[in-house]
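Sequence only, no structure available. Ideas?
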Amino acid sequence: MSKRESYGAANLETRAAHAGRDPEAHHGAVNVPVYHASTITFPTVADLKDKQARRFDDVYYGRYGTPTTQALDRAVADLEGGHWCVSVGSGMAAVSCALMSVLKAGDHLLMVDSVYWPTRNFCDTLLRDMGVRTTYYDPLIGGGIRELIEAETKLVFTESPGSLTFETQDVRAIAEAAHAAGALVALDNTWASPILFRPFEHGVDLSIQAATKYIVGHSDAMLGTITMTDRALFERVKTVAGQVGHAVGSDEAYLGLRGLRTLPVRLRQQGETGLAVARWLQGRPEVARVLHPALPDDPGHALWKRDFTGACGLFGVLLKPGPSPKAVAAMLDGMSLFAMGFSWGGYESLILDTTTSITRTAGIWTHDGPSLRLHVGLEHPDDLIADLEAGFARLTAGA
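Reply:
I predicted one. C-alpha cells follow.
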C-alpha cells in the first residue's frame, strides 16, 4: 500500500473518493488504468513460482485478477469495512460463488423467504442437485432462527430489506444465533450498498452485492462482489471463483471504480427523492401501502433506523384490489420517465409490475391487489410525481 492508499479517513464520502487508488504507482494518474491482460509473464522461474505462491494477493493470471480488478476489490472491501473482496461477473455470480464456497453435499442452508428470486431458483435447482438442502424462513424471525438451525446447518442467508417486499431483518440477532451454533451468515447487501449498512458490525461473515446496481450506478456494466473479514474464507471464495471460471473484465472493474467515487452523493440524492415520491404515494387513493422501511409507519422502521444510515431509491407499492391487469398495463405502458426494465441502481427511474413475482414458501403472501416496484433515479421528484399522477389516471380509466 502506498502513502496515497493509506489515507485513513473515517468518513465514507472521503473513502469512496480515495479507496483503491494509487496514483504513485501509475505515473500520477488519478484513476487506476484499465489493464487488458490475460497472460502475465515472468522474468525467471523463481519469480513465476513466487507469484504463483502469492496468487491470492498478486497478479498471476488474468482470470485471477489484474491491477484494475484488484483496485476494485480493495476499494469495496475498504468501504464495506471488510479486509478482502472477490469481484465476479454479476450479482448472481456473487451469490452462487459464495454459496458454493461454504456449502457441500449433506449441508443445510437457511434461506430468507423474501430473497431475490434468482437466488431462490439457484437453491431449488443447482444447489439441490449438489446435495445441499434448503429451508426457507420468515424474514422477520430474528433470533428465533435458532429453532431452525440443525447440526448440518452451515450457512444462514439474509437479505435486508427483502426483495420486492422490503422487510427489514434483524441481522444482528440472526448472526448471534447462527454463530452460537457454528454457522456462518451471508447478507445480500445490494439495497444498502457499502454506504447505508455496515455488514461486519452486525455479525455478517460474507457480504454480497450486485455491484451492477448502485456501485456501477450507470446501468452499463455487470458486476458482483463478495467481501469478508476472514482470510481463510477469502482464500476459499477466491479459489472457487477461479475454479468455476469467474473473471471480471478490467473495463467492468473500471466502471465499478468510477461509480464508487460518486456513490455517497448519488445515494443521498436518490434516497431523498425516493422518500418524497413514497410519501406522495401514501396519499394516493389507489395505494393500499407503500413498502419502504424509511417510512415511520413501516413495520421494519425501528430496525431500519437502528441499523441503517439512510435509504436508497428502491421500494414497493401495493395497490388496492380492483384494477385489472389490463389497467395496470395501461398505467405502465404510458409512463414517460419511469421505464420498464430489470435491474436498478442507475441514474434512471424504473417501474415493474411485481404482482405475480412475489414467492413465499415459509409463509403466505396475502395481498390481493396489484403490486409495483419503483426505482427512483436522479430526476426531479416533481417530474416523477407528475409521471405517476398521469399513470394513475390511466389506471383508473382502465379499471
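The chain has two domains: 12-259, 263-398.
Hope that gets you unstuck.
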